Amino acid sequence: MKPRPRLPGEFALIERYFAPLSMGFSGAYGLLDDVAVINPGPGCELVVKTDVIVGGVDFPISAAADLVARKALRVNLSDLAAKGAVPRAYLLDLLLPDSIDEKWIAAFADGLRKDQAEYGLHLIGGDISATPGLVAIAVVALGELPIGKTIRRGGARTGDLIFVTGTIGDAALGLAAVRGTLAGISREETDFLVDRYTLPRPRVPLGPKLIGLATAAIDVSDGLVADLRHICEVSKLTAVIEASCIPLSGAAAALLTDPGILETLLTGGDDYEILFTAPPMAADTIAELSRSAATPISHIGQMHTPLDGQAKVTVLGKNGSPLVFASEGWSHF
Amino acid sequence: MKPRPRLPGEFALIERYFAPLSMGFSGAYGLLDDVAVINPGPGCELVVKTDVIVGGVDFPISAAADLVARKALRVNLSDLAAKGAVPRAYLLDLLLPDSIDEKWIAAFADGLRKDQAEYGLHLIGGDISATPGLVAIAVVALGELPIGKTIRRGGARTGDLIFVTGTIGDAALGLAAVRGTLAGISREETDFLVDRYTLPRPRVPLGPKLIGLATAAIDVSDGLVADLRHICEVSKLTAVIEASCIPLSGAAAALLTDPGILETLLTGGDDYEILFTAPPMAADTIAELSRSAATPISHIGQMHTPLDGQAKVTVLGKNGSPLVFASEGWSHF
């Protein structure tokens, strides 16, 4: 009836690998009940976010299970960070095909354990299901921030400067490297780029510090241009950024001699940096925050009132003329 | 690169079918932001629950999309109800294979719309992903109840009576009917059973009324015996129930002449009734609640201190001797 010789039962898996991840969060009830209880701290409200990653789509089926787990968690933490929230807990839905064995589960849980320690949150619930399809992982991240202080997409104002953390495009190049379509760089640079694709570094400590500074924010997951467009659409503004101001890693900069690379960098996605807007008078405070938080923050452009009512993103090239890309970024279909 | 001619883009789908389901819940931001904000009402706390259903596993791939949507939502609402919570909102992760077309999505969203109206909750976030596998739906339900009042699995005490709402086993027989392995009953009875399998009726209005009455509760999803065992394990007690006291529908009762049917009824699962324990002195209040809420509630057994330390469930047959089943209920593997 249910041939699955490679895995112990659902309850054994939970007890062995997942219940330990709930320890320290009383509302998780040790994963021994049907719901978890969670409440925002005094003066705070809860934010929730869910993102799914699918084997063969969002990560290679052969990827190491601990890294898959950490990516599944981190892509959600990145959204919380961009909104200014501190992560508190998460739920985990696992769809497991027959090809998954207990060793995979053990490594997966170990990846979660590491990231729980790094980001200070706990597993508080979930579901494990067999699937005739491929492995899929849905994470629901719960965080909190001061009441009414969520940094929205829609708060940007005309004249606001546009900033982005870290470097852009490394993950897209890393994916190209995984696929074997990247040439002309050193082994060290390739390893760096693949790592940037495999294990995002969400800006969890920085995000909450942007409350009161950023007028709008989003994490860069679909691609810099596409995500900036999301801010433009909801803020009903247009954005102009300068290609030469986009922060690049050394590995990415070395590849810029290929004329097609810039589009990959700006539209490839999976960066998990924070893209945000802030009024010009906040620029000094942001520069100081960048230093104190040891996080690069680059000024890349400015928001404008659209002359034609169109909320769009313009990327200016070296000679000051707009660049045209085939696609602005990733769409799930 | 991404062949999916049958569906419009992710953002178009959200705007067309899912954003309307968020209207009326301000913290959902019209599904135009990366997170949703939710807070418990005064004196309340939030509970969260997630359950996944997978095509070909939890529902037939050919099932009507609106019913798939409603089942995906309702299995989660059933958990909230059994814990005493009032549903407030939900998140939705959709994994869509190429076989899904826009008509399916439209029907799916329509099913959600109907259930939102019926149960008074809103969609506040989610994710849509392409999958090379089968359709899968993960729902995260959020509800609230008075602080500290969650009806846990572990609160049962020796001497508590065991109660269950509605009738047990109909869905298991309905699944058998769908599979074509059920004979000897009328067309009307078959339709009734299939409907019980297809569209659960979670006890949403009743659940919160059990706060202060029930010492422990769980919804019957894995099977009556298996779920009662979950209560026993966490409460560290043993349970004795009488087969003749298990509430059956007319259709199920008519099939009892087949000696194997009783096991199907008690271990088949998918009932989405509430199984709970309460002290004997609460019996009159529970009978009155059953009348006022127009919800059948049956007394089926009692909790005992285990003589051998084993938390187990004993089902007594007509002659008073224990029945032995091959399996206590559904496991996902």
Explain how this protein is built.
The structure is a homodimer of 333-residue chains. Chain A is of the alpha+beta class and 333 residues long. In chain A, 30% of the residues lie in helices and 23% in strands. The first copy, chain A, contains nine helices and eleven strands. In chain A, strands 7-9-6-10-8-11 form a six-stranded mixed beta sheet. A four-stranded mixed beta sheet of chain A has the order 2-5-3-4, with helices on one face. The longest helix of chain A is centred in the N-terminal third of the chain and has 18 residues, at 65-82. The model of chain A has no long low-confidence stretch (mean pLDDT 94). At the A-B interface, strand 1, strand 2, helix 2, strand 3 and strand 4 of A face strand 1, strand 2, helix 2, strand 3 and strand 4 of B.
Low-confidence stretches of chain A: none
Chain oligomer state: homodimer
Question: Roughly how many Å apart are the termini of chain A?
Answer: 35 Å
How many beta-strand segments of chain A?
Answer: 11
Identify the biggest protein-protein contact and residues per side. A-B, 66 and 66 residues
Mass-distribution shape of chain A:
globular
Could you give the topology of this structure?
The structure is a homodimer of 333-residue chains.
Chain A: H1 10-18, E1 36-38, E2 44-54, H2 65-82, E3 86-96, H3 102-119, E4 122-130, E5 136-146, E6 161-165, H4 170-178, H5 187-198, E7 216-219, H6 224-235, E8 238-242, H7 250-254, H8 261-267, E9 274-278, H9 283-292, E10 297-304, E11 313-316
Parallel strand pairs in A: 3-4, 8-11
Antiparallel strand pairs in A: 2-5, 3-5, 6-9, 6-10, 7-9, 8-10
Helix pairs in contact in A: 2-3, 4-5
